[in-house]
Structure formats: structure tokens, C-alpha cells
């Protein structure tokens, strides 16, 4: 027999969380957390990421340079490196646990309680990975806004602005949290259905 509606919902939640995890991994790698347009040289666009700074010229050429020192980075970027890497690792673990706990996963089908625990652990890990993604992205965005509107900085000094990775990180965090929440809900519903099944069988007898 094919997968039930509950199993299909679990699979959809897992795919949503996986989309968030992939987006989180991309956010971690790309050097697009901050953008800077120089008024003196409009032909160059500066992009800053967690690992390197890139300069994109008008003709399309891009030159990147890695950050020289981890300790020289601003506090929000240092924290973002650690939290994003932790989020990506936790998301991978959550994907493995959730996949093993799906109703459509036939091995160990008779061990419903163990599969339910795996599903709940996977959902909780996805939710935690979502929080670990949202926190550093929001922190970097908050500091970018503060620096942009800082009146103590002269107007002639260029200001960093939001990069594309900031918005991708927000989407990734929400997808991870939403997918994890749906997996947790499906695990709790499975427990309710399992508990009600013996009662219904006893009433039928």
C-alpha cells in the first residue's frame, strides 16, 4: 500500500526543511552578506561574506580575497561563521534522523515508537538549525542598519548595505523552522493515532 496522507505530509515537511538547509549552506558560502557601491568608482561593487571579500568590476571580472584573520573580523561575522557552520551540521543530522523516521521508510516499520522518536528528534533539530541560521543573519543585518544610519560617520564615507545572502538566509531559517515544526506536529499526531488505535480495537470487540 502506498504512503498515507500523514506520510505524504511528513515527506512535504522534510522537503521544505531540506530546501531551507540547502539555502543555509549557500548562504554560508557566498560572499554576498554585504554590498558596497563606491561613489568615487561606480564601476566596482564590493561584496563581503563570512570567508572573503570580492570586487566585481563593470566588465564582469571578479577578484576575491580571503579574510586575513578570524580575530580581525567584527564580532557579528565571527559569531555568524560559527553559528552557520553549526546550523549546517545540525541540519544534515536532522535530515538523516527525519528520513529514518518517515512512515514511508519501510525498514523497521514494526518499531513505530522508535521511528516516532527519530522523527521528533529530526524535527527538533531542524527547528534548532533554523534558529541558528536566523540569529546570525539578523545580527549582521541589524549592525548593517546601525552603521548605515550612524550620524557620527561622515557622509562621504561609503556605507555597507544588505546583500542577497541576507535575504536568502532569512528564507532558509524560516523554511528550516517551518519544516521542523511540521515534522514535530506529524510526530505528535502519530502518537495520538497510535494511542487511539488500541482503544478503537477494544471497543470493536
UniProtKB/TrEMBL annotation:
The subcellular localization recorded is: Cell junction, Tight junction; Cell membrane
Task: Extract the GO molecular function terms from the UniProt entry.
Answer: structural molecule activity
Checking Pfam families in the record gives: PMP22_Claudin
Annotated GO CC locations = bicellular tight junction; plasma membrane
* Domain of life from the UniProt record: Eukaryota
Which stretches are transmembrane? 79-105, 117-142, 167-189
What's the stated role of this polypeptide? Answer: Claudins function as major constituents of the tight junction complexes that regulate the permeability of epithelia.
Record protein name field:
Claudin
What organism does the record attribute this protein to? Answer: Crypturellus undulatus
From the broadest rank down, the organism's phylogenetic lineage runs: Eukaryota, Metazoa, Chordata, Craniata, Vertebrata
Amino acid at each position: 500500500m502506498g504512503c498515507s496522507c500523514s506520510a505524504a505530509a511528513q515527506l512535504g515537511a522534510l522537503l521544505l526543511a531540506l530546501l531551507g538547509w540547502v539555502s543555509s549552506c549557500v548562504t554560508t558560502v557566498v560572499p554576498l552578506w554585504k554590498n558596497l557601491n563606491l561613489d568615487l568608482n561606480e564601476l566596482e561593487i564590493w561584496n563581503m561574506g563570512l570567508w572573503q571579500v570580492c570586487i566585481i568590476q563593470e566588465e564582469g571580472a571578479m577578484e576575491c580575497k580571503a579574510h586575513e584573520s578570524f580575530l580581525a573580523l567584527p564580532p557579528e561575522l565571527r559569531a555568524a561563521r560559527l553559528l552557520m557552520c553549526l546550523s549546517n551540521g545540525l541540519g544534515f543530522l536532522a535530515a538523516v534522523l527525519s528520513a529514518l523516521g518517515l512512515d514511508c521508510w519501510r525498514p523497521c516499520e514494526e518499531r513505530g515508537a522508535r521511528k516516532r522518536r527519530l522523527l521528533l528528534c529530526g524535527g527538533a533539530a531542524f527547528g534548532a538549525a533554523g534558529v541558528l541560521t536566523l540569529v546570525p543573519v539578523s545580527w549582521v543585518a541589524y549592525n548593517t542598519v546601525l552603521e548605515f544610519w550612524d550620524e557620527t560617520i561622515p557622509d562621504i564615507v561609503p556605507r555597507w548595505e544588505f546583500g542577497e545572502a541576507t535575504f536568502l538566509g532569512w528564507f532558509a531559517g524560516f523554511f528550516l523552522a517551518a519544516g521542523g515544526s511540521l515534522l514535530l506536529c506529524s510526530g505528535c499526531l502519530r502518537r495520538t493515532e497510535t494511542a487511539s488505535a488500541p482503544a478503537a480495537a477494544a471497543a470493536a470487540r
